[in-house]
Amino acid sequence: MGVSGSGKTTVGEELAARLGVEYAEGDDFHPAANVAKMSAGIPLTDADRAPWLDLIAAWLAGHADRGGVVTCSALKHGYRDRLRTAAPHLFLLELEVPRDELLRRLNSRVGHFMPASLLDSQLAALEPLTADEIGASIDADRPPGDVVVEALAALGVTSR
């Protein structure tokens, strides 16, 4: 989980490969209307996100027996509660990156619908993990391989 540009896709793909589980890109679950809205620089509302979160929750529930890695901004505690309803043992990895680095990443990204102009709205909506949530916050302002190693350690996996 994390805001756009935090490295969710890069870390998620490598983490899934190292764990030997299926990976799903959270952006692929967005309905076309959400993508159009974000492409136009309009932040999503909670109502816009609800069907998207429900699709991700269904994917999580369908992978509960074998595990999986799915990326999702999951900005608010309530969004994560919605996901945990379908996947009670959900382990969240919050990727933390300073705003300036996020902006640099977003401005250098090609072919993605999420414009850098929406970064501040995401940062304003972001509610960091709380003590009642199973997961870990990870400094993702470093090489992805280092982030994955820390993620594996947080999951209790020593080497893969």
TrEMBL record:
<dbReference type="GO" id="GO:0005524">
    <property type="term" value="F:ATP binding"/>
</dbReference>
<protein>
    <recommendedName>
        <fullName>Gluconokinase</fullName>
        <ecNumber>2.7.1.12</ecNumber>
    </recommendedName>
</protein>
<dbReference type="Pfam" id="PF13671">
    <property type="entry name" value="AAA_33"/>
</dbReference>
<dbReference type="InterPro" id="IPR006001">
    <property type="entry name" value="Therm_gnt_kin"/>
</dbReference>
<dbReference type="GO" id="GO:0019521">
    <property type="term" value="P:D-gluconate metabolic process"/>
</dbReference>
<keyword id="KW-0311">Gluconate utilization</keyword>
<dbReference type="InterPro" id="IPR027417">
    <property type="entry name" value="P-loop_NTPase"/>
</dbReference>
<keyword id="KW-0418">Kinase</keyword>
<keyword id="KW-0067">ATP-binding</keyword>
<comment type="similarity">
    <text>Belongs to the gluconokinase GntK/GntV family.</text>
</comment>
<dbReference type="GO" id="GO:0005737">
    <property type="term" value="C:cytoplasm"/>
</dbReference>
<dbReference type="GO" id="GO:0046316">
    <property type="term" value="F:gluconokinase activity"/>
</dbReference>
<keyword id="KW-0547">Nucleotide-binding</keyword>
<comment type="pathway">
    <text>Carbohydrate acid metabolism.</text>
</comment>
<keyword id="KW-0808">Transferase</keyword>
